[in-house]
Amino acid sequence: MTTSRTGDPAQAAPPQWHDRKRRMWLFGLVPPTAIVLAVGLVWAFNLLGWQAVSPVWWWIGPLLVYVVLPILDRFFGPDGQNPPDEVMEQLENDPYYRYCVYAYIPFQLVSLVLACYFWTAGDLSWLGVEGGLGLVSKIGLAVSIGAMGGIGINAAHELGHKKDELERWLSKVTLAQTFYGHFYIEHNRGHHVRVATPEDPASARFAESFWAFLPRSVWGSLRSAWRLEQARLGRMGKRPWSIHNDVLNAWLMSVVLWGALAAVFGWQVLPFLVIQAVYGFSLLETVNYLEHYGLLRQRTASGRYERCTPEHSWNSDHIVTNIFLYHLQRHSDHHANPTRRYQTLRSMAGAPNLPSGYASMITLAYLPPVWRRVMDHRVLAHYGGDITRVNIQPGKRDRVLAKYGAR
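Structure tokens predicted for Alkane 1-monooxygenase:
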């Protein structure tokens, strides 16, 4: 007689799930430590007598963003792993993942200080450099530090969505480098409310180039953050021009940081701090541009916008950029669950997907004709060819409707 083992709990239990990216999240520390790597490469190349080539490593930031990450995304492809329901709580509460984000901040600050040293040092003979760095190398270093700061804004984004006061404070600290502290207010209380509507400065419109979007998003987000804080403080009976204003106290962190660096290294660091800040927040805005391009929440019978759903964010599941951006590419789940920690974000059914990872799409965004060739037909396909359901750039609306045929 054969005994059935169908009811055996040990046999019936599903295999234990594990996060195959668990240790990979440490690669998220590559951007804030890239300058240290660059210094080592410059020294090694100079030692080998390759002085003509060694300065290229001061541009390690853009090399990482525009070359290395897109190549790795193409090579390794999509992730494909979603955490199941039964592990979500355990995964959410695992402190290891938040420490991976926390670690970004000290490395970021150390690299910023190191950059200030290289911007102002007059004798770098120990590095094999005659005198100090040349202007092109200094600018390359500023752009590389800006890349670190731009990716750091994403770390701040992860922290700023949390309810823990320490994490919110660390978010502001991380934003201090790029002087973009108002992002902490506007993103959480502005963008997440108005996403994929014409009223949102951080949602790109169909036929709007990145170069038109950039100033609209930068200034629109700044105005929105100030108005949000003004309204909040007004309800509390407080004036906006006070330390209680989160825009002002976040900017104060930047003033203190930049002032301390200028006091230690001299005013000569200030132009390069400006360069890195502008490049850093522009990198963030490029990501903003591609995340909701052309997508529109429709108005309901009540006149209000429909709820934000997975179809209102462009996603990508390419594993390498996922690691470097803490699953930011799983953007639909992030908008559905803003306080959910990055390790538990999932790819969602029904969400539109970009043809490649965010890192690859950033370069396309800089080239409007190429961007539109790649993306416009995808936006139309997402809405079944109905151009009237698309978030269109107002100044080009008539032309777009005529071209694609309003139904």
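Residues 36 and 381 are 45 Å apart (CA to CA).
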